[in-house]
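Write out the bound-state structure for zinc ion.
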Amino acid sequence: MLIIGLTSRDRLLLTLVFGCERCGRQAAHQLVKRVRRFTVFFIPLIPISTRYLDTCTACGRVVDVPREEAERALRSGGPLRP
Ligand SMILES: [Zn+2]
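---
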């Protein structure tokens, strides 16, 4: 019998401090890369989707960030423009 499933793993890429458009505070934002993988016998094999998420640590709002924007922020250490 084949045991298949899905797994999701988050990796923190960067923490940035900038003004949140929701709560208006200068707060730390965590940029996370979330990769979902197809698993066989609990071993992650094939990546299905990759998302970049920005979480405001002050109010907890989470937004998707386009890949190009996430990579730009990683290179420059600049704020995100979701
Ligand atoms: Zn906020």
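---
The chain is about 10% helix and 60% strand.
The mean pLDDT is 92.
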